[in-house]
Amino acid sequence: MRRAVSWWVWVLGAVVVGIIIRDQVFGTARVIGSSMEPTLYNTDIVLLTKFDYWFSGPNRGDVALCLLPGREQTYLKRVAAIPGDSYAIRGGVAYLNGEVLPEAYATGTDRCEDFQITLDEGEYLVLGDNRLESYDSRAADVGVLSRRDFIGRARFHLWPIEKFFRGIY
After folding, report:
1. Of 78, 58, 85, which is closest to residue 150 (Cα–Cα)?
2. Taking burial as the number of CB atoms within 10 A of a residue's CB, which of 13, 61, 62, 78 is the most buried?
3. Which residues lie below 8 Å from residue 101, measured CB to CB, with a gap of 6+?
4. In which order are the strands placed within the sheet that holds 86-90?
């Protein structure tokens, strides 16, 4: 009897540790829609690392799972600018801190409306890679995000499996 109880305690402990790791350290997200094409496509599944943002904010270029203000669902977006940066789209060209920003992952920038912002301390600009089909920081009801709005960084494709070794760029 004592051996059976000991076994169940170990199993229950392993389940609890697994739940904590999945909830606090790693996670997954399914892509819904076309806003992150060509990096991520509708129905792709990505592995998230949540510990990336425990002690610091996101880095420029991260593809992150985030909460947008006033929305309950989460969104995968690229961090385009971090606190203190100036970001602009003028005449179809992206600029970061006054320098032309080559964004090989972005599509549709050449057809976007002009946009310009300078970020204050604690502010982050997120954009979809498909600039014409993305609901992101350019929308008046979204705006910039704060560090607490970021859930995790997308690291690897889990599905489709043939994209697994490519990572997220």
Report:
1. 58
2. 78
3. 87, 94, 95
4. 99-100, 93-96, 86-90, 115-118
Read off the tokens for 147.
């560090």
Select from 2.60.200.30, 3.40.640.10, 3.40.50.300, 2.10.109.10 the CATH code of 28-166.
2.10.109.10
Which residues lie across from 77 on neighbouring strands? 64
Task: Give DSSP secondary structure letters for 80-140.
Answer: EE-TT-EEEEETTEEEETTEE---TT-BSGGGSPPEEEE--TT-BEEE-SBTTS--STTST
pLDDT value at residue 167: 67
Q: Which two tokens stand for residue 162?
A: 């043939």
Enumerate the β-bridge partners of residue 10. Answer: none
**Half-sphere exposure for 146 (CA within 13 Å, toward CB):** 4
Give the SS3 label for residue 31.
coil
Q: What is the pLDDT of residues 78-100, one digit of tens each?
A: 999 999 999 999 999 999 999 99
What pLDDT, on the 0 to 100 scale, is given for residue 12? 72
